[in-house]
């Protein structure tokens, strides 16, 4: 049985279980309603911090989240993922830290008991206070309530002195207050500026990347400190019809030669595409795409030059995503953000790999029609639509710490709108931040390479002659906040990336 079928059967089982549980709950509710007995307490919004520095720290997080969900805690939002130096007791391994926001009907002390049970079940034992532990789960907030007993204090009393707690906590918020409960959390902080002011007082964004606190993305069994420098994704299409390089790398010899060239010139990621997404391209079925892709994926994963490098697969099919990861791919790059396959988010959530969500309206055949090019404010609307796709992905179980966002240059945009996007990357982040700081802080990828709008501006009808314009677009994008650039010509763009990174480093002084 293919990995895709196994994942889909698992998802179907979860849906069936949810349906059965819901039906049972309704029956119980009707029964107890007749008896005039109240069986449901009010759901409360909670924030729970996670920490781990023993064993496979990321697996510990995944396991804890699953156990929390099974114990009556519905997780709705995830913070970013941080690797931090230990506090208080410093002679121990580095921690992973994050936080989640959700709802539960468990009362505060019952919730505490559930979390302590999870800690024990996962191997935590009594030891040195603040010492090593496979998992640490702390209740930061419980609705708008204060709790002060011998066993539980809410809000957690040490929130205000711990950047490794405050960072993930503010990730769970938007710059706009979304409800009265969040307003109460601001009041609990004791600061006129609320939680964000407390975070800024601790150093805020200025301490990320230094002072022992890094924001990281888990990929290929390691933690990628993506903000330390700009990463380069080299494009490698194994298609006969891609707009720039279609048909050039379909033989094993030419394919291997191009992989080695991209890596030698500085690529960190190779993005394999077996289906063209140029306007009006012929659409392949998942099976046809896999038939094209799999022989090349088999080749690339065996190349010694790929040691330490990442393989991304450019697909909007969940079946292709699942089979690709089973064959060694590390990331999925979805131009539709899940819009073209309703199973994509569930499958990627189960695969536990980074997911690149791109903004596009319609599909490759319709994305450039007049309806899909209508924007009143392209940056604001792209941000809103991209956020909606990211929220759908998060609700399906893909944490914010596994997401990469792409505003989709060249997809459902005309020449002027593409320029607005390049100029407006900070605006896109700030618009997303109004609803979710975590989503706004995700790595941002841009892919203007050899796109038609560059040809229109520069008078270059042949795609391969747009490399100079691509360098200029990449430069503008990096200086505006892009973290990953997707390009055909790695060599020329690598120099631009190095210069931009040097300039950005100077800005910090």
From TrEMBL:
<keyword id="KW-0547">Nucleotide-binding</keyword>
<dbReference type="GO" id="GO:0046872">
    <property type="term" value="F:metal ion binding"/>
</dbReference>
<dbReference type="GO" id="GO:0046656">
    <property type="term" value="P:folic acid biosynthetic process"/>
</dbReference>
<dbReference type="GO" id="GO:0016301">
    <property type="term" value="F:kinase activity"/>
</dbReference>
<dbReference type="GO" id="GO:0004156">
    <property type="term" value="F:dihydropteroate synthase activity"/>
</dbReference>
<dbReference type="GO" id="GO:0003848">
    <property type="term" value="F:2-amino-4-hydroxy-6-hydroxymethyldihydropteridine diphosphokinase activity"/>
</dbReference>
<dbReference type="InterPro" id="IPR045031">
    <property type="entry name" value="DHP_synth-like"/>
</dbReference>
<keyword id="KW-0511">Multifunctional enzyme</keyword>
<keyword id="KW-0808">Transferase</keyword>
<protein>
    <submittedName>
        <fullName>Folic acid synthesis protein fol1</fullName>
    </submittedName>
</protein>
<dbReference type="InterPro" id="IPR011005">
    <property type="entry name" value="Dihydropteroate_synth-like_sf"/>
</dbReference>
<dbReference type="GO" id="GO:0005524">
    <property type="term" value="F:ATP binding"/>
</dbReference>
<dbReference type="GO" id="GO:0046654">
    <property type="term" value="P:tetrahydrofolate biosynthetic process"/>
</dbReference>
<dbReference type="InterPro" id="IPR035907">
    <property type="entry name" value="Hppk_sf"/>
</dbReference>
<comment type="pathway">
    <text>Cofactor biosynthesis; tetrahydrofolate biosynthesis; 7,8-dihydrofolate from 2-amino-4-hydroxy-6-hydroxymethyl-7,8-dihydropteridine diphosphate and 4-aminobenzoate: step 1/2.</text>
</comment>
<keyword id="KW-0460">Magnesium</keyword>
<dbReference type="Pfam" id="PF00809">
    <property type="entry name" value="Pterin_bind"/>
</dbReference>
<dbReference type="Pfam" id="PF01288">
    <property type="entry name" value="HPPK"/>
</dbReference>
<keyword id="KW-0479">Metal-binding</keyword>
<feature type="domain" description="Pterin-binding">
    <location>
        <begin position="230"/>
        <end position="498"/>
    </location>
</feature>
<keyword id="KW-0067">ATP-binding</keyword>
<keyword id="KW-0418">Kinase</keyword>
<comment type="similarity">
    <text>In the C-terminal section; belongs to the DHPS family.</text>
</comment>
<dbReference type="InterPro" id="IPR000550">
    <property type="entry name" value="Hppk"/>
</dbReference>
<dbReference type="InterPro" id="IPR000489">
    <property type="entry name" value="Pterin-binding_dom"/>
</dbReference>
<comment type="pathway">
    <text>Cofactor biosynthesis; tetrahydrofolate biosynthesis; 2-amino-4-hydroxy-6-hydroxymethyl-7,8-dihydropteridine diphosphate from 7,8-dihydroneopterin triphosphate: step 4/4.</text>
</comment>
<keyword id="KW-0289">Folate biosynthesis</keyword>
<dbReference type="InterPro" id="IPR006390">
    <property type="entry name" value="DHP_synth_dom"/>
</dbReference>
């Amino acid at each position: 049985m293919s990995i895709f079928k196994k994942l889909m059967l698992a998802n179907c089982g979860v849906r069936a279980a949810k349906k059965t549980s819901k039906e049972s709950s309704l029956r119980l509710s009707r029964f107890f309603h007749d008896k005039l007995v109240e069986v449901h307490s009010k759901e409360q919004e909670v924030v729970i911090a996670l920490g781990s520095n023993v064993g496979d720290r990321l697996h510990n997080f995944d396991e804890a989240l699953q156990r929390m969900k099974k114990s009556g805690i519905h997780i709705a939002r995830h913070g970013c993922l941080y690797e931090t130096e230990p506090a208080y007791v410093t002679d121990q391994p580095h921690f992973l830290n994050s936080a989640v926001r959700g709802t539960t009907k468990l009362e505060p002390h019952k919730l505490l008991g559930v979390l302590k049970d999870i800690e024990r079940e996962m191997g935590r034992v009594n030891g040195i206070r603040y010492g090593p532990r496979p998992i640490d789960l702390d209740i930061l907030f419980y609705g708008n309530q204060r709790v002060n007993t011998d066993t539980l204090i809410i809000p957690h009393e040490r929130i205000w002195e711990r950047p490794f707690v405050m960072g993930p906590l503010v990730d769970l918020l938007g710059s706009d207050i979304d409800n009265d409960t969040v307003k109460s959390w601001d009041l609990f902080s004791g600061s006129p500026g609320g939680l964000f002011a407390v975070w800024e007082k601790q150093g805020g964004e200025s301490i990320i990347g230094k002072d022992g606190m890094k924001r990281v993305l888990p990929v290929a069994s390691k933690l990628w400190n993506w903000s330390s420098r700009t990463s380069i994704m080299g494009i490698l299409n194994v298609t006969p019809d891609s707009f720039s390089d279609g048909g050039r790398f379909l033989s094993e010899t030419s394919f291997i030669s191009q992989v080695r060239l991209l890596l030698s010139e500085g690529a960190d990621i190779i993005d394999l595409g077996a289906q063209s997404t140029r306007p009006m391209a012929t659409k392949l079925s998942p099976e046809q795409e896999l038939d094209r892709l799999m022989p090349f994926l088999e080749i690339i994963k065996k190349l010694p030059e790929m040691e330490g490098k990442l393989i991304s697969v450019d697909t909007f099919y969940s079946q292709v995503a699942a089979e690709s990861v089973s064959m060694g791919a590390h990331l999925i790059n979805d131009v539709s953000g899940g819009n073209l396959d309703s199973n994509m988010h569930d499958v990627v959530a189960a695969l536990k790999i980074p997911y690149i969500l791109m903004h596009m309206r319609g599909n490759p055949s319709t994305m450039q029609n007049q309806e899909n090019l209508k924007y009143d404010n392209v940056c604001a609307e792209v941000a809103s639509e991209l956020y909606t796709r990211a929220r759908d992905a998060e609700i399906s179980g893909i944490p914010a710490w596994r997401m990469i966002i792409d505003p989709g240059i060249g997809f459902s945009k005309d020449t002027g709108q593409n320029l607005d996007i390049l100029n407006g990357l900070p605006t896109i982040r700030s618009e997303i931040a109004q609803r979710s700081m975590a989503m706004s802080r995700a790595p941002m990828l841009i892919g203007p390479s050899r796109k038609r709008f560059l040809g229109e501006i520069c008078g270059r009808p042949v795609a391969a002659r747009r490399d100079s314009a691509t360098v200029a677009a990449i430069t503008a994008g990096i200086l505006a906040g892009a973290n990953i650039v997707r390009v055909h010509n790695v060599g020329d763009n690598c120099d631009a990336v190095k210069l931009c990174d040097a300039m950005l480093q100077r800005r910090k002084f």
